[in-house]
UniProtKB/TrEMBL annotation:
Protein name (record): Inositol 2-dehydrogenase
KW Nuclease (keyword) present: no
Residue ranges occupied by any Gfo/Idh/MocA-like oxidoreductase N-terminal domain in the UniProt entry: 35-154
Source organism phylogeny: Eukaryota, Rhodophyta, Bangiophyceae, Galdieriales, Galdieriaceae
Species whose genome carries this gene: Galdieria partita
GO cellular component terms given for this protein: cytoplasm
Amino acid sequence: MWRLLSRLFNNNNLLLTHSGKQWKKSFSSSTERKLNVAVIGGGRIGQVHMETLSFHTPLAKPVMIVDFIEKVAKSTAEKFGVAKYSTDFKDVLKDPSIEAVWICSPSSQHSEQIKALAAAGKHIFCEKPLAITLKEAEEVTLAVEKAKVKMMLAFQRRFDPNFAKAKQCIQAGAVGDVYAVHLISRDPAPPPIEYIQNSGGIHNDMAIHDFDIARFMTGSECEEIVAYGACRVDPKIASEGNDIDTAITLLKFKNGAFCTIDNCRQSPSGYDQRVEVFGSKGLVRFGNNFPNNVFIEDGHSIRRSDLPFNFFMDRYTEAYRNETKEFVKCVLENKEPPTSGRDGTAAMAMAIAAKKSFLEKRPVKLSEINP
């Protein structure tokens, strides 16, 4: 039986107290303005963002879902209680009630959609990449800046609590001057060969996140890259995918910091994501996330009961939600988003330089990479 029930309204939170325990439920005041949004693309990542916008972001209101497959668009609208659906993204342009749009469509469509949305005055949240080529990425970034709309690129790792806290520690001076960053990023298993054939290679579709995090952690721009790699996991990745599956990349930054990136398409222990930043005063580091914190201790060893998360959507669930909430906040409060088209073009240029270094077997300066 309830011994004590108190309702305290503060900063739009409902605080329930029962026998000394507290639960807090966020809610939005009926008078608080909500951001009308649309999502283009009803695939895996589109579903993730639609769920966050519908159930975890009180200040956002999804009003349209677009997917070129009508069945997907309709079922997604029904699933999340969205009033309108379409198979043509241009219907978003025609709807004056829509203020911001989440682009979760195939990569080849991003450039066209960004330009059209910017011209229509819509704010844009875009899944990576901005475009297929560096030239297109530069063009869409300029188009957004010219239209004076906000655009945020979805480098979700920046919004993961571990990455965000490490960056906070660095900014607070915990490591002093950054000397070296070491990033480990390994997938549980290789993607299908068909995906690899159209991905642009391991530096473009996998290491692109690490290139962004290297800039994020060092607070500097990369000036030179040396890349090594081989096909160690599956020979078909080389013979049919024309790619490598294991890569080591060394980055040199303008502030003097170095970074090593260790990528592999397969990790027997699961999704492997580890970071260390070392500097003049010390280091910050974090390891993998696990489904639980249970350990087994017996006469043989002390060990965890489970392997790390085996899927990036599970590992970065909180990060995906945080980035979506942040962009809604930026639009409503008229603030600049923490990631932009400039971050996207910088990471893309680094990916191009890494691939060039691997193919030409030499260090490549970023000044060599032009749109």
